[in-house]
Amino acid sequence: MALPKALRSSLTPQEIEFIAENQQITIVPTRAINDKFELLSGEFGPFRPPLKSKVPLWLALLLKRKGKCTIVPPVWLDAEYLEAKLEEERASAGFTEMPFMWLETANLLVKDAQDDIPHYEQVRNYIKGIKECRGNKAVAGLKFITIDLFSQGFLNLDNLGLMEVNEIKPFFAKAFDEMGKFSGALATDKQ
């Protein structure tokens, strides 16, 4: 499949979710599974309820779909925690600290493990709010850089997640290309 030129240098959201599925997450088996799974990322199992186990997110989602486990959401996927993060995000000029793959993980869990997330609707709304707030900050920062090309200002992009970096990458690449053209033209004009 041919991708548009703007997407050729970055990953698709599906590719990023695929990468995120390799991170470890905690599950609680609902029934005993005596088999061991020998995978490239390690050996998992046997699983015995009510003992918790750490497995890759993709395996947790597979077991969840088959009704063989419940997923223990990460501590940051809590309504109170996300509410505080949203308020902090709105009050701060920079980006608040979140796990590097927070958005991808949250999207996968909200989509496939809704019944394992307490206060699911609130969590989903807070995730959406945080994403929108952070996206607005990135766009505003990009406008600041492109409007104020020759000032000594900067945009702090600390604490952005993988999906967020990937979303703004094409815009930043184009902006920096244009900045390079302008600074090159200025250098030749001064000579």
From TrEMBL:
- Keywords assigned by UniProt, alphabetized: Chromosome partition, DNA replication, Nucleus
- What residue stretches are annotated with the GINS subunit domain? 76-174
Has UniProt tagged this entry with the keyword Lyase? no
Q: Name one GO biological process term.
A: nuclear DNA replication
List where in the cell it is found: Nucleus
In terms of InterPro entries, this protein maps to: GINS_A (IPR021151), GINS_bundle-like_dom_sf (IPR036224), GINS_Psf2 (IPR007257), PSF2_N (IPR056784)
Domain called DNA replication complex GINS protein PSF2 N-terminal: residue spans: 12-72
- UniProt main location, coarse: nucleus
Q: Can you name a GO cellular component term? A: nuclear replication fork
Source organism's superkingdom?
Answer: Eukaryota
UniProt lists the family membership as follows: Belongs to the GINS2/PSF2 family.
Q: How does it assemble?
A: Component of the GINS complex.
Q: Provide the protein name.
A: DNA replication complex GINS protein PSF2
